[in-house]
Amino acid sequence: MTRLVRLILDTSAVCAFPSVQVGEPISEVDDEGAGFGVPVAALASAAAVIGADAVGLLTKNGAFVALELTMDRWQQVGATLGIVRDLAAAHAVVVAIEADCEILTARPESYAGLGDDPPIIVI
Q: Percent of the chain, pLDDT > 90?
């Protein structure tokens, strides 16, 4: 059973795991019976920085939901990519808007092009 996504981690948040700034929000959504989503592109990007074993620990969490880029989203993600300039971040934005949730990030500047109130939580 796939959980309802209530939080999205971008590449910077995956790289910060298992810090308390990432672990606490994950625990909160898990306590609600919800999940946290991570774009697969963010997993790959983070693995290049912190290693696949570290990223693998995150994916083993019971609240983890892999966010795959599917054909029904490519145009929205492409349009958003023109604003945020990162594939994983663009995918995260599209899913956050659809799911009415926020993106956990250590790089708020990545989302500056979205205006004054982007759907982010800064760690």
A: 98
Joined together, the tokens standing for residue 59 give: 């994916």
β strands within the chain, DSSP E? 5-9, 35-39, 64-67, 102-105, 120-122
Tell me how far CA of residue 108 lies from CA of 22, 23, 57, 62, 70, in angstroms. Answer: 15, 19, 25, 27, 25
Structure tokens at 2: 């796939």
* Helix 87-99 × helix 40-50 angle, to 10°: 140
Task: Report the CATH number of the 5-122 domain.
Answer: 3.40.50.1010
Are the C-beta atoms of residues 72 and 64 closer than 8 Å to each other?
A: no
Q: What is residue 2's predicted lDDT score, i.e. its pLDDT?
A: 77
> Is pLDDT above 90 for 61?
yes
Give residue 1's pLDDT: 63
CA dihedral 71, 115, 89, 30 (to 10 degrees): -100
Cis peptide before 18 (omega within 30 of 0): yes
pLDDT digits (tens, 9 = 90+) for 88-120: 999 999 999 999 999 999 999 999 999 999 999
